[in-house]
Amino acid sequence: MSAYETIYNIVRQIPYGQVATYGQVADLANLPGRARFVGYALYRVAPDSDIPWHRVINAKGEISESPVRYGSDYLQRSLLEAEGIQLSPQGKISLRKYRWRSELKG
DNA sequence: CTAATGACGTAGA
DNA sequence: ATCTACGCCATTA
After folding, report:
1. CATH entry, A3-96, from 3.40.190.10, 3.20.20.80, 3.40.47.10, 1.10.10.10
2. What is the spatial distance, in angstroms and rounded to an integer, between the CA atom of A55 and the C1' atom of C10?
3. Which of A4, A14, A38, A72 has a C-alpha 20 to 30 A away from that of A31?
4. Does residue A1 carry a pLDDT above 80?
5. What is the pLDDT confidence band of residue A106, given thresholds at 50, 70 and 90?
6. Over 80: is that where the pLDDT of A105 sits?
């Protein structure tokens, strides 16, 4: 059981039409303050994986763009819009509305 | 074992 | 809101 598998487990729990921040996923994965691990874990995940990686965004409500993704960041935005999530012209997401409220945390 | 990497978060200005 | 700087520590070569 790698630490990443725990993160993947959390990401799979994100319901349709909602998003979670890296910090939130890290917290749910019992890894407080290890938000970087979440991002690094998703980096290992393949775009065609069964993990809803596109529902994970940063605390600013934006999609993390990085050259290592080779455009998968654009794909993420498309997937989010496909789920009914509205993005601001700047690519921001209203965490106030779409943030996944964990059942475990209350 | 060491060195480098990394889709982030928080605090201060 | 924007920018700068530091911390976090598993994973990989």
Report:
1. 1.10.10.10
2. 23
3. A72
4. no
5. low
6. no
- Name the residues in A54-93 having a C-beta closer than 7 Å to nucleic acid strand C: none
In 3D space, the residue among A40, A93, A41, A83 whose CA is nearest the CA of residue A63 turns out to be A93
Q: What is the mean pLDDT of residues A12-29?
A: 93
Rounded Cα distance, A39 and A27, in Å: 13
Tokens representing residue A47 in the block:
């775009």
Report the sign of the C-alpha dihedral through residues A102, A10, A14, A94, in that order: positive
